[in-house]
Specification:
about 200 residues, 7 strands, about 45% helix, about 15% strand
Length: about 200
């Protein structure tokens, strides 16, 4: 089975650091190169650029829309439909879509972002899902380490990196550990090894 990896990030990118959209494309390419399927919120900005990168690499891109139909997706939400192989119209608006997005994948990558991106991150964090953060991309992504430290909930299953290739590689390694634990049950020895690594 392929990995399903969400790219979560700013739909409106004026506050992102220069070069962030190219980094999002690189993340999309790396997800495909490293055996993954890209999942997005079927929106503009960072997720859209990651979809471009994934498609340039010949990969599969699945979108989860906040809209209830293609018509609403295009006319009401004003969201794109290109660079996706499949868009699922959830009808759950942004908050409900964010929950489904985080839970429908093996891992979530955060790039730049605003409050919606933070919502997707916190869902993944609460669900103890492997998460990658592209540091240096601006917005919420550059605040997450501080937020996690000040939240007194432990470090979570998070990898931080500024290099797209390294970030995806390290995140997939974390996903593989999770899959091994899930496959073998809740072995205490495996949990200790995961914590030690």
């Amino acid at each position: 089975m392929k990995y399903t990896i969400v790219v979560s990030g700013a739909a409106e990118t004026k506050h992102c650091k220069p070069g962030t959209l190219e980094l999002a494309k690189d993340i999309g390419r790396e997800i495909v190169r490293q055996g993954g399927v890209l999942v997005t919120g079927a929106t503009s900005g960072v997720p859209y650029w990651s979809a471009i990168g994934a498609k340039e690499q010949g990969g599969t891109v699945i979108g989860l829309s906040p809209a209830a139909s293609e018509k609403a997706h295009i006319k009401s939400y004003r969201l794109p439909t290109d660079y996706h192989d499949l868009i699922i119209y959830t009808g759950f608006d942004y908050a409900g879509r964010n929950l489904l997005l985080a839970r429908s994948s093996d891992a979530v990558i955060t790039i730049c972002g605003r409050i919606g991106t933070l919502n997707e991150f916190t869902v993944a964090f609460e669900d103890r899902k492997p998460t990658g953060v592209l540091i240096g991309s601006g917005g919420v992504a550059d605040m997450i380490k501080n937020i996690v430290e000040k939240s007194y909930r432990g470090p979570g299953k998070i990898v931080y990196d500024s290099n797209p290739k390294n970030l995806v590689k390290r995140l997939i390694k974390l996903v593989d550990k999770e899959k091994k634990i899930n496959k073998n049950g809740s072995s205490t020895r495996l949990r200790r090894k995961l914590i030690a690594d």
